[in-house]
Amino acid sequence: MPKQESFEEEEVTPALSEKEMDELDSFLMSDATTNEVMLLDCLDGFLTALACGPAMPKPEEWLPRVWGPTAADAPRFESAAQAARITDLLTRHMNAIIWSLHQDAEHFEPVFDLQVFEGDEHEYMDGEMWAHGFMTGIDMQRNSWQAMFESKHGPVALRPIYLLGAPEITEAEEELVKTPAQREELSKQIPASVGWIYKFWAPQRRAADGASGKPSATEAPKISRNAPCPCGSGRKYKKCCGATRVED
């Protein structure tokens, strides 16, 4: 099984090249996989949730979920060499996400889809499937995420991801994601949300890696006062939630 890095020390782990991303994308979309497989944007969201959550599962725990929810969704590889190649690409993409978050979580760049609609010249950013993948990642470890759900700012930070990616939302919430423009606006809020979530769980991840003592699971991360507020208001944090913040 390829090694999954922790990146406690500075290492250079380049992202997959464009050619390699295309190779992985082509395999995910091929007849070798079932209709339950995660496509590239969904996969990126799924891996990001695992990388920025409270504890990183082992590859043998998360790799099968990429193909689908059941063992019957396992891909039909042409050879052992192909299986090794695709597994390597998946693991390297996970490592690149871990590295990117470790280096600069506040400027993380998700892999979003782009949508165009007849009669509309605008090309819309659409993070719906990315968010679905992220929520799937949370569901793998839902009990471990409870501290964030119960924190003051956690549900606020998660809200754009939840609205776009939750399997079920209320009728009132559905009104917030009806149009491409609404979904694009929520998608633009996701990088700030990822940065907040990554920092929230940093103490627990360090403890899980054996790098520190017992963490405070509800310790909220520090947010740059000039960063966009994770609530999605469009204002700077210091002018929004940061103006009246009370620690959890």
From TrEMBL:
Give the residue ranges for region: Disordered. 209-236
Kindly give the Pfam families that the UniProt entry links to this protein: SEC-C, UPF0149
Task: Point out the coiled-coil segments of this chain.
Answer: none
NCBIfam families in the cross-refs: ygfB_yecA
PANTHER family, A to Z = ADENYLATE CYCLASE-ASSOCIATED CAP C-TERMINAL DOMAIN-CONTAINING PROTEIN, UPF0225 PROTEIN SCO1677
Which protein, by its recorded name, is this?
YecA family protein
Name its species.
mine drainage metagenome
